[in-house]
């Protein structure tokens, strides 16, 4: 489980908005909220082809230079995969067919004598300037630009420009989490701020303390998950609600009620007895759902991730809820079939990456996830005799790779039910 915490390595998750022409505290529309009672353990299975229209496995080429551990972050740039590997502190670039192109690691980063620390990679984002896309690599000293071919371009000191943000199609509105709004000499911090770049309007939601991250421990996912061009979900720490965002407003979309064994105490946020002792509480209550993770609404299907620090292969935390029929499915119970070459579409039940991280990306109406070569070769052995021919990329992978090869990316196109 990722511990989403404010620090410089995550490149200034806080930024100071100076768009003060008009600012206000946002009003949340709760007139259409839907309350869902869900028992995760009651979720059942289904065949892969009942949920997805397409399944594609993309093994990532393994060479001495391209070998890495696992995918901490994945971004899609046209026909390229951009991957951040935490273990090697490198950004690797592959084609969308898995061919290795280049990587950006410590050997390519620039360090000056005046820098306080040696430049190392702490993650990256994509930046477009003058119709050209660049890889912007975070270091403790600055942000360093590289081309998609891995060539150094420049260094930039303005960290705030690269703090996390999200925008919608055909809109001038930008969303920024954990941001200050400045009014005169005073600044107020909000969990989420929307900025209309054209009108210079700034709206803040959920006022928080200046030392929000320093004063307590917060476990959870990225709070904003975009699931189509014009909408996103927003979640809060230790909360069982999903808020829906668009360019004009925020509304409370869903409230969840879980079984008592999975539910946090009502005073979990307000009772000082839990402050800085969250982990100890979770250790003693390992089935506790401590929040809602990255979730997506695709047609009538709500892809729901339940946050829990500890891995338990029997606990169902990645669910699909049909908002029309109320049918509840579990990802770990999906049955491989001919659409997936009788291979699982996640590593759920074998290792814990998918249970902890969920999907790595959702782009062009497709989910992206991955699992290790060890998992892939194990799954192949388990499914022996069920298929006579694999897709060309997999066929080659099984002939030339082994259990120590690079991970495999799985691309899933969900049905628009």
Attribute tags:
disordered N terminus, mainly beta, 39% strand, globular, 6-stranded mixed β-sheet, 417 residues, 30 strands, 8% helix
Walkthrough of the structure:
There is one protein chain. The strands form 6 sheets. Strands 1, 2, 15, 16, 17 and 18 form a 6-stranded mixed sheet that branches. Strands 3, 4, 19, 20, 21 and 22 form a 6-stranded mixed sheet that branches. The chain has one domain. Strand 11 (124-129) and strand 12 form a beta hairpin. 8% of the residues lie in helices and 39% in strands. 33% of the residues are buried. It is mostly beta strands and 417 residues long. The two termini are 30 Å apart.
Describe how the helices and strands are arranged:
Elements: E1 15-17, E2 22-25, E3 28-29, E4 34-37, E5 44-47, H1 48-51, E6 52-59, E7 73-77, E8 80-85, E9 90-95, E10 100-104, E11 124-129, E12 132-138, E13 143-146, E14 152-156, E15 166-167, E16 173-183, E17 186-196, E18 201-208, E19 224-228, E20 231-234, E21 241-245, E22 250-257, H2 278-284, E23 291-292, E24 296-298, E25 301-307, E26 318-322, E27 328-335, H3 353-357, E28 361-363, E29 366-371, H4 373-382, H5 392-400, E30 408-414
Parallel strand pairs: 1-16, 2-18, 3-22, 4-22, 5-27
Antiparallel strand pairs: 6-30, 7-8, 8-9, 9-10, 11-12, 12-13, 13-14, 15-16, 16-17, 17-18, 19-20, 20-21, 21-22, 23-25, 24-25, 25-26, 26-27, 28-29, 29-30
Question: Quick summary of this structure?
Answer:
The protein is mainly β and 417 residues long. The protein has helices at residues 48-51, 278-284, 353-357, 373-382, 392-400; strands at residues 15-17, 22-25, 28-29, 34-37, 44-47, 52-59, 73-77, 80-85, 90-95, 100-104, 124-129, 132-138, 143-146, 152-156, 166-167, 173-183, 186-196, 201-208, 224-228, 231-234, 241-245, 250-257, 291-292, 296-298, 301-307, 318-322, 328-335, 361-363, 366-371, 408-414. It is globular, with a radius of gyration of 22 Å.
